[in-house]
Amino acid sequence: MSVNIPKSEHHKHRLLARSGLNEIVFCYGCKMYHVHYETISLDLTLKGLFSLMEYLQKCIQENAGICDDDIRWIELATPSKNIRLYFSINDCKSLAGLIVQSIKTIRDHPPQSKWN
After folding, report:
1. In 15, 45, 57, 113, which residue has its Cα 20 to 30 A from 100's Cα atom?
2. CB atoms < 10 A from the CB of 2, how many?
3. Residue 11 CB-density burial (10 A; 0-12 exposed, 13-18 middle, 19+ buried)
4. Side by side, which strands form the sheet with 40-44?
5. Predicted local distance difference test score (pLDDT) of residue 86
């Protein structure tokens, strides 16, 4: 099954990290970091990107060895009471790695305009 992941086509953007269909881009128009992972899309500030990475790393440390790494049972809180995101240990590792790669890109190749 192929999933059509929305890209940041309406604004100029810069690719920061990609792994398969998963990617993180910085959108110059809305000054947000668009995280496309599997069927989930998140719009984050730089602070939000760091917070998500720290949370994922904490989940990996706290849950390693407790359950099968492929079972999605780690819940990520959202602002909405009706929306819950569940990740496996492998999902957490993969998404955290993508975020780390994007942060390295930001640090190694800063853009001409200020990052949010």
Report:
1. 113
2. 5
3. middle
4. 13-19, 22-27, 32-37, 40-44
5. 87
Q: How far apart are CA 75 and CA 86, in angstroms?
A: 5
Instruction: Determine the pLDDT at residue 2.
Output: 44
pTM of the complete model: 0.79
Give the Cα separation of 51 and 53 in Å (integer). Answer: 5
What is the rounded CA–CA span in Å between residue 17 and residue 78? 23
Q: Which amino acid is at 80?
A: S
pLDDT at 96 (0 to 100): 95
List pLDDT tens digits, range 21-67: 999 999 988 889 999 999 889 999 999 999 999 999 998 898 888 87
Q: What is the DSSP string of 38-98?
A: TTEEEEE-HHHHHHHHHHHHHHHHHHTTTS-TTS--EEEP-SSTT--EEE-HHHHHHHHHH
Please name which of 108, 18, 91, 15 lies closest in space to residue 52, comparing C-alpha atoms. Answer: 91
